[in-house]
Amino acid sequence: MNMYLAAQDPTLADFGKDPWWLVLIKIVFAFVFGLLATLLGVWFERRVVGFMQVRPGPNQVGPFGLLQTLADGLKMAFKEDILPKAADKVVYFFAPVISVVCAVTALSVIPFGPMVSIFGHRTPLQVTDVSVAVLVLLACSSLAVYGIVLGGWASGSTYPLLGGLRSSAQMISYEVAMGLSIVAVFMTAGTMSTSGIVAKQGDATRLTVLGTEIPAPGWYAILLLPSFIIFFIAIVGETNRAPFDLPEAESELVAGFMTEYSSLKFALFMLSEYVAMVTMSAVTVTLFLGGWRAPWPITIWEGANSGWWPMLWFFGKVIALVFVFVWLRGTLPRLRYDQFMRLGWKVLLPINLVWILVLAGLRSIEDWESRDRLLVTAIGAGVLLLATLLWPSRKKAPKPTVQEQVNNRPHGSYPLPPMDLQVPPSPRTKRVVAEREPANVAAGPDSREV
Amino acid sequence: MTTQTVLAAAATSVSTGEAVTFWILAPLALLGAIGMIVARNAVHSALWLVLTMLCLGVFYVLQAGPFIGMVQIIVYTGAIMMLFLFVLMLVGRDASDSLIETLRGQRIAAIVLGLGFAGLVGGGLYRALEGVQAVGLDEANAEGNVQGIARLLFTKYVLAFELTSALLITAAVGAMVLAHVERRKEDRMDQVATMKARFRPGNYPGPKPGPGVFATSSSVATPARLPDGRLTERSTPDILPVRELTAEETTLKGTER
Predict the structure, then answer these.
(1) Contacts of B190 in chain A (CB under 8 A)
(2) Residue B37: pLDDT above 80?
């Protein structure tokens, strides 16, 4: 890492030196970011889904309908707060609070940018960082399940309970896949602090191609592509977003765990869902998409990764990922519960384990001599190719002819018309043709038959 | 405060922040433990236990063990207690303790024994650790907390670690074997086979006709009439005899006037 990078990239030693007012500013910023992201996120989702379904979406309140969510939020606040008779009052109240707290807390370890100067203080654009910051994120997402499950249980009615049960099983299953795909990031980065992971994705080796020096891709989305794909699928499951929104499947469970909720408590659940979506997008950006670092063409400009500019790149990446979330919702139908579980346990988990094994193997032969390394890689690739070549393929049964299919039909089947049936022309067609004025062109041989 | 200074501070003396956090969270942890015992509702019990576990996680972080603290929260609070809740919900939300004492005086005995045991353990620990200066924390955390744990796990304690994992895998496989339902391949009906069976001759693919509930009768035992005038038994439940209404039953009851 050269001096230039070292000046920009915060290390763990840079945290914990801020005066109290700076800490307060950062915390308020992260919190407001979460709230604003919800406000704009709901609008963004409705507009994008509207665009995908060829309808305008909300466009009346404010410019481009931007204030629609605000209006909805105000309306929600003035609605009657209903407490079901069978509800467990304390737990019923705490469930949405837990959801929101967990979703917002995760924002505290997200790096929004590099070292900047705020009122004369050099400080990283991140509330805080610890040596196990990614585990803090995991802890937040695993505690967020409580909000949904308890909300479902405390409502004291059937649909919410079913939604809660579904979500507890779902989130535990997908947390496993999520945690395992982060393992690959840990192995490559050698650190668990979010700022450290962002820094590691920046100091990629530079390749010299045709005399010009271009940086090799350092983003873990490229280096660890399988982990990235699995991680993204897992966070869609973790945030209960379509096509994995089984806990609130409206066609089966009315509204799932939040069926009985109304007014501000419902608004809190809604808030937590969108904050979680934005938070998880930010986590993906941090872990796999280079964090606040500018993507390649912009990095030609020297100052792209310093000062306040990186925040722009960061927000751009987050918005792009939120768009993918919305895109998934607009495109894919909801999975059935057993299909969903099978995907998690029988597809994502084994692929992840094999990939980690391969990655560990690659990491351990990195220190070898180049000849040995080449040999091992070649043998591995050869075995893989041979296995693909010799993999027994299922032989397709020859397709029976029409006559065979007819003969194979069981006794008593619906009668078929004879195979050599000539359909007589419709009498109406005949009449129309006869009444029509003769065309001025010479009639072909076909026209006579009609 | 950076990790290094936290670790250094933890090694030498109790800092103000640590003391404040401890005295806030320790009563909460105790409250959670007592609440778990006292709560009548099983889910409330589990939630009190979650509170205690969260406090313990923070204590670990406070004691310069950030990794174990986070793992405590993720694994114990996030996964294991969640599975507890899952089972409790399956059992039903009204599953409360029964207050009937089956063994006479067991509650008093349990309280006395519990207090005595807590006193013994607490007193023993206090006496043993009084005036002991903790050393070696700096060395253990020299190259980072996570790295230190990893080094110990994969060098000195690798056998114990692997044995534990083998035990856990055996348990998981055992649970799967117990819960597994053997189904032969030919018994499994895929979608295509189900569809073919449905349209096989002799099986009517559509829904069964409803019972013949007409204006003259509101009984589900009345069979439906097929288009050719026959009655069909498929329209009535199997336990009911098929019965056609007599002429007397179908005549008007004289209520129209």
Answers:
(1) none
(2) yes
Q: Please report the pLDDT score of residue B119 as a whole number.
A: 94
**pTM summary value:** 0.74
Range of A318-327, B7-16, B200-209 with top mean pLDDT = A318-327
Q: Which two tokens stand for residue A342?
A: 């099978």
Rg of chain B, C-alpha, whole Å: 35
Contact B74 A91 (CB under 8 A): no
Contacts of A131 in chain B (CB under 8 A): 3, 66-67, 144-146
Q: What is residue B133's predicted lDDT score, i.e. its pLDDT?
A: 77
Structure tokens that stand for A283 in this block: 């986590």
Give phi and psi for A379, each to the nearest 5: -65, -45
Q: Which of B3, B71, B72, B94 to mutate to test the interface with A (most CBs of A within 10 A)?
A: B3
CB atoms within 10 A of CB A398: 7
CB contact under 8 A, B74 and A150: no
Domains along the sequence of chain B with CATH = 14-95 (1.20.120.1200)
Q: Rounded to the nearest 5 degrees, what angle is found at the Cα of A70, between the Cα atoms of A67 and A75?
A: 130
Whether pLDDT at A235 is above 50: yes
Look at residue B169 in the predicted model and tell me its pLDDT.
Answer: 93
CA distances from residue A352 to A56, A178, A285, A325, B124 in whole angstroms, order as listed: 41, 9, 20, 22, 47
Kindly provide the ipTM of the predicted complex, given to two decimals: 0.72
- Quote the pLDDT of residue B8: 47
The band of B9, judged by pLDDT with boundaries at 50, 70 and 90, is very low
- By C-alpha distance, the chain A residue nearest B82 is A168
Question: What's residue B120's pLDDT?
Answer: 95
Residue B163 has pLDDT above 90, yes or no: yes
Spell out which residues of chain B touch residue A172, defining contact as CB-CB under 8 Å. 79, 82-83
Name the B residues in 87-146 with CB < 8 Å from any A CB. Answer: 89-90, 93, 144-146
Is A76 among the domain residues?
yes
Please indicate whether, in this complex, the C-beta atoms of B74 and A138 are within 8 angstroms of each other.
Answer: yes
pLDDT at B115 (0 to 100): 92
Whether A338 is in a domain gets the answer: yes
Residues in chain A closer than 8 A to B83 (CB atoms): 168, 172
- CA of B17 vs chain A CAs: smallest distance (Å): 13
A67 belongs to a structural domain: yes
> Which of A130, A165, A175 is opposite residue B86, by nearest beta carbon?
A165
How far is residue B244's CA from residue B231's CA, in Å, rounded to a whole number? Answer: 9
Strand ranges, E, within A163-305: 206-209, 212-215
CB contact under 8 A, B77 and A142: yes
pLDDT of residue B164: 92
Query: Which run of H or E residues covers position A131?
Result: none
B94-150 confidence digits (pLDDT tens)? 555 566 667 778 888 988 999 999 999 999 998 888 877 777 777 777 777 888 888
- DSSP H or E segment with residue B232: strand B231-232
> What is the domain count for chain A?
1
Domain holding A58, by residue range, is: 10-366
- Asked if the structure places residue A214 within a domain, the reply is yes
